[in-house]
Design goal:
Strand order of the largest sheet: 2-1-6-3-4-5
Structural class: alpha+beta
CATH class of the largest domain: Alpha Beta
Strand content: 15-25%
Shape: globular
CATH architecture of the largest domain: 4-Layer Sandwich
Number of domains: 3
Number of helices: 22
CATH topology of the largest domain: Aldehyde Ferredoxin Oxidoreductase,  A, domain 1
Largest sheet: 6 strands, mixed
CATH superfamily of the largest domain: Aldehyde ferredoxin oxidoreductase, N-terminal domain
Distance between the termini: 40 Å
Number of strands: 17
Length: about 575
């Protein structure tokens, strides 16, 4: 029987090559996922030490609904970000949560530094520490291919790995999960690289009967019907998030050429509709999801004379098309796919890479960079130059690229250009120039992400006309509720399915007696824990500054006021203090 009375935590020490398994009944009040991850991180992190110190922990956690209900598919990673220096939080799907569940672990803590490059194999039998020197230096793709040959467990196995970017400490290096998903933002790849950890293989073989099968079946069928028989999830299976290209471009909210414009003349050519009609070859789903939102494109290219062609399959979505397309002035699907392939193989976060390159392009145009740098002809629309620059971000042939490899905030400190550096809370911005809700929400969200609190959603639903206090109240309430969903590790695409009543019913069907008020309290407590940790690591909400570019380019047809946005920030800080007390 799946034991809901305790949280099973696997602790791995890479330095000593030792592991233990702890039963933690005290953690059940945090449900799982980000609740448990935050609590464990608070126990293990040392705010006085830098993010890449070997003692700093990486936490992986799943939730109580994982593998049990549709779209409870995510694994959360919690770590200290080498990009911002503070809170790091990222989510990934595919098979990892499934494999961890059936390996018997609710959470994994990884500390230390392996004496030589290594990879881990986690299973119900424990942990194997494997020599990873033969994988060091290899691309994400080659690493995955070799580990699939070396390690058994097809179907119940998940493989996460870093690329050369993580090995070389690029502050926005990501972690690839089962080829088509990632722990993308805030630099988890660099943290694993600093630990000499190339990959983790998880094999799950266990089975768990359901305690209350009748109640579970009824709750499951209700959720399943809403997922597959209503239009709530239609967008995600149809065009996927790439549908946002046309929508945001039409609204005047698609960042273009480093946000010098908010619409793109070539948006139609790189829209979700164009990708679906001309490049889409299949759709995939994470384990435990009936939707299939992962859209895979086929990139076909000639590599030698006499009709020698190769075909590459690549996942695409809105954020990739924005960051490696419109933001760089690139209006060709194949050029975007070439850049996607490059960042995938090297193991880079696509959003941070695109925003950084867009800034570097404008900084070069304005004469802010050292003579001769960046060594390639960075110009909006010049795909070949961008491909070379991405290689240099990882190879780091000189001080210029070594600085860029630490992220946009580091580049601005060194070279200037803060007025047009698309940073929100120290993090490279995602692809929404919708208004005050988005800009404030991205900046103040715990992980400085558009997914923290629905800021862009309130902008689009209201047309930008919302009272200041209503924006603040919405952002705080939404972030607290998303902490609940993220404790259950539910895909946020399904947030319209898992309302409060549905979530309570699902939990009770597997023996967890939470009501709506208990869940809301938990969401608030998780946010309080995050804020306390962020402050201990040096983050000050009142120090947030907004680049002037945000006010020079219209958002959804209107110019924003810097004074208004700063007033909103002050209102948010006051409301946050009330929540903390």
């Amino acid at each position: 029987m799946l034991d809901r009375q305790t949280i099973r935590v696997l602790q791995v020490d890479l330095t000593k090559q030792h592991y233990i398994v702890e039963e933690r009944p005290d953690l059940t009040t945090f449900l799982g996922g980000i609740g448990v991850g935050t609590r464990l991180f608070a126990e293990k992190v040392d705010p006085k030490l830098p993010p890449l110190d070997p003692s700093q922990p990486v936490i992986l956690a799943i939730g109580p609904l994982t593998t049990v209900f549709p779209l409870a598919t995510k694994t959360v990673a919690v770590f200290r970000s080498p990009l911002t220096g503070e809170w790091g939080e990222s989510y990934a799907g595919m098979r990892l949560a499934f494999a961890l569940r059936f390996a018997g672990y609710d959470a994994v803590i990884i500390t230390g530094r392996a004496p030589k490059p290594a990879y881990l194999v986690l299973s119900p039998d424990g942990v194997r520490f494997q020599d990873g020197r033969g994988l060091w230096g290899l691309s994400v793709d080659d690493t995955g291919r070799l580990l699939r040959e070396w390690e058994p467990g097809r179907g119940h196995r998940s493989i996460i790995r870093i690329g050369p970017a993580g090995e070389r400490g690029v502050a926005f290096a990501c972690v690839n999960v089962d080829t088509f998903r990632h722990f993308g933002r805030l630099g988890l790849g660099a943290v694993l690289g600093s630990k000499n950890l190339k990959a983790v293989v998880v094999n799950g073989e266990l089975s768990y009967p359901i305690k209350y099968p009748k109640a579970y079946r009824e709750a499951y069928e209700d959720i399943y019907e809403r997922v597959v028989r209503t239009d709530i999830m239609y967008k995600y299976h149809g065009l996927g998030t790439a549908a946002n290209v046309s929508v945001l471009n039409g609204l005047g909210a698609l960042p273009t050429r480093n946000l010098q414009a908010s619409s793109f003349e070539n948006a139609e050519a790189i829209s979700g509709e164009a990708f679906a009609a001309q490049r889409l070859m299949r759709k995939l789903a994470c384990t435990g999801c009936p939707v299939g939102c992962i859209h895979i494109a086929l990139l076909r290219r000639q590599f030698a004379p006499d009709y020698e062609y190769e075909s590459v399959t690549l996942a695409y979505d809105y954020e990739l098309i924005y960051a490696l397309g419109s933001l760089l002035g690139i209006g060709d699907m194949d050029d975007i796919l070439k850049l996607i392939e490059k960042v995938e193989l090297l193991g880079l976060d696509a959003i941070s890479t695109g925003v950084l390159l867009a800034w570097a392009t404008e900084a070069r145009q304005k004469g802010l960079l050292p003579r001769g740098e960046p060594g390639v002809d960075l110009a909006f629309g010049n795909t070949e130059a961008y491909l070379k620059a991405v290689n240099n971000l990882v190879a780091q042939p000189n001080d210029f690229y070594r600085t860029l490899a630490q992220g946009l905030a580091a580049a601005v400190r060194c070279y200037g250009g803060e007025d047009f550096a698309l940073l929100l809370g120290g993090h490279e911005m995602a692809g929404y120039h919708t208004g005050y809700g988005y800009l404030l929400g991205h900046a103040v969200g715990a992980r400085h992400s558009h997914l923290c609190n629905d800021g862009y959603g309130i902008d689009q639903r209201s047309g930008g006309e919302v009272a200041p206090d209503a924006i603040v109240d919405h952002l705080l309430a939404e972030e607290c509720w998303r902490n609940v969903l993220n404790s259950l590790c539910i895909c946020l695409f399904a947030r319209g399915v898992y309302d409060e009543a549905t979530t309570v019913r699902a939990l009770r069907s597997i023996g967890l007696d939470f009501d709506g008020e208990a869940l809301r309290r938990l969401g608030r407590e998780i946010l309080r824990m995050k804020v306390r940790l962020k402050r201990e690591m040096g983050f000050d909400y009142r120090s947030i500054r907004f680049p002037r570019r945000l006010f020079a380019t219209p958002a959804m047809g209107r110019y924003l006021s810097e004074q208004t946005l700063n007033d909103l920030l002050n209102r948010y800080c006051r409301a946050l203090e009330k929540l903390m007390n």
